[in-house]
Amino acid sequence: MTLKPHTRYSFGGWARLESVGEAQAGLYLESPSGEVRRATEMTISNYAPWRQYGTVFATDEQTVLARPVVRFHSGIGRLWADDFFLVEASDRCRNMIVDGGFEGPTAQPGSPRWWFDRYGLTSAGQIGGPDALWGLDRSEHYQGKQCLRMTNPLTDIGPADAHPVAEQRLAPGLVLHQGRSYVFSFYLKGDRPDLALSAFAGSWYSYHQFKATDGWQRYSFPYTPENDETQPFVRVDLLGQGKVWLDEVQFEEGTEPTECRDWEE
Ligand SMILES: [Ca+2]
């Protein structure tokens, strides 16, 4: 396949693995001459049912040929792979975030793909189930059928202590350019007024504290990098005790947020 320059792609496939002892295998998109080598975000689970593995990435200024590759890193076993996909983000999709509406495939049951929690997963009570401290909520949404719920059960803790976050690293390869304007936006609702939160809008250098209310409201934060940012990410942190619902998360170029769109629309 030919990969276009300055384009965002989602790549992956379905796989299943049975090994003798420990074995590691992965799905890759690679160019024969080595300019592109993208692995799916997780290694293939041993003896798990068929599941989808994927990754997102952005190309640089080159046009390159690439092909899917299935590879054992170690161990002995049998691997089945099927239904590979390569999806190009549409020109209409300004959103650099994947699954910003939390409607896409899950990583684990109840857990949105592409999104990570740095602290909450180690909190007491984070076992899963309908009231997990961090995960998809099908009884609430701003748009679609579900959103992300984050709960902080503790009282009066400071920002340095454990608190739930929703974090996504933007497509590897994507660069935010020095001097250009970007804007991070999302809809958020709290379980009471005056909830303390913070957000990182693209970088550690773009930190914003804000208060949420008990109704759905859109929040947006600008970012103009002083230097090229090569590892951009976004993050929403719930600082104090409470519960919030997050939906329609978007990161785009420009100064004002536009209507939230999904990567694969
Ligand atoms: Ca949604």
What attributes does this structure have?
mainly beta, 265 residues, 4-stranded antiparallel sheet, single chain, binds calcium ion, Jelly Rolls
Kindly describe this structure.
This protein has 265 residues and is mainly β. The radius of gyration is 19 Å and the shape is globular. The protein has two domains: 2-88, Galactose-binding domain-like (Jelly Rolls); 106-253, Galactose-binding domain-like (Jelly Rolls), CATH 2.60.120. The chain has no helices and 17 strands. It has a five-stranded antiparallel sheet, with no helix packed on it. Strands 2, 3, 4 and 6 form a four-stranded antiparallel sheet that branches. It has a four-stranded antiparallel sheet with strand order 11-16-13-14, with no helix packed on it. Bound molecules: calcium ion. Calcium ion (CA) is lined by residues 101-103, 141, 143-144, 146-147, 247.
Question: How is the topology of this model organized?
Answer:
Layout: E1 2-3, E2 8-30, E3 37-39, E4 51-58, E5 64-65, E6 67-88, E7 106-108, E8 111-112, E9 134-137, E10 147-152, E11 165-169, E12 182-190, E13 195-202, E14 207-212, E15 217-223, E16 233-238, E17 242-253
Antiparallel strand pairs: 1-5, 2-3, 2-4, 2-6, 7-8, 9-10, 10-17, 11-16, 12-15, 12-17, 13-14, 13-16
The structure holds calcium ion (CA).
The site of calcium ion has 9 residues, from loops.
